[in-house]
Amino acid sequence: MNTDVRFKLNGVEVGIDTTATNINYEYQYQSNIPIANAGIYTVEVEDISPPPITVRSTASLQFQVKLLVPKITLSQPTLHSSSM
User: Fold this and answer.
1) Of the candidates 55, 44, 1, which has an alpha carbon nearest to the alpha carbon of residue 25?
2) Three-point CA angle 12, 25, 21, nearest 5°
3) How far apart are CA 25 and CA 27, in angstroms?
4) Which is nearest to 41 in space by CA: 5, 16, 21, 66?
5) pLDDT, greater one: 4 or 1
6) Which of 20, 72, 73, 78 is placed for a possible disulfide with 27 were both Cys, Cβ 3.0 to 4.6 Å?
7) Would you say residue 23 has pLDDT above 90?
8) What is the mean pLDDT of residues 19-39?
9) pLDDT the model gives residue 2
10) Cβ neighbours of residue 59 closer than 8 Å, sequence gap 6 or more
11) Which residues have a Cβ under 8 Å from the Cβ of 46 and sit 6 or more positions away?
12) What DSSP element (H or E) covers 81?
């Protein structure tokens, strides 16, 4: 049974996992893909055979990353007066 998959981020290969975990005849793969900027991304996972690489199946997930900017609240200045 083949247990090799490759991960793509927006069509660019970002990793390969050859150490699938078999749990009740289901293979679980893992990859950490850093996302540097806000935007819309697609992650693809392809089941591949050993070289020469043949794609057996594929799945994809599309998601959006948003940049949260902290809200800045301005308040009116407090004026003090004194008499001498």
Assistant:
1) 1
2) 50
3) 7
4) 66
5) 4
6) 20
7) no
8) 83
9) 61
10) 44, 45
11) 5, 6, 8, 55, 56, 57, 58
12) none
Question: Which residue has tokens 């927006």?
Answer: 10
Which two tokens mark 36? 């540097």
CA end-to-end span of the chain: 92
Distance CA 9, CA 63 (A): 11
pLDDT > 90: percent of the chain:
33
> Does residue 70 have a cis peptide bond before it, meaning omega lies within 30 degrees of 0?
no
Q: What is the pLDDT of residues 61-83, one digit of tens each?
A: 999 999 888 888 888 888 777 77
Six token digits for residue 10: 């927006």
Looking at the DSSP assignment, which residues form a beta bridge with residue 38? none
Strand residue runs (E) in 1-84: 4-9, 12-17, 21-23, 26-28, 39-48, 55-65
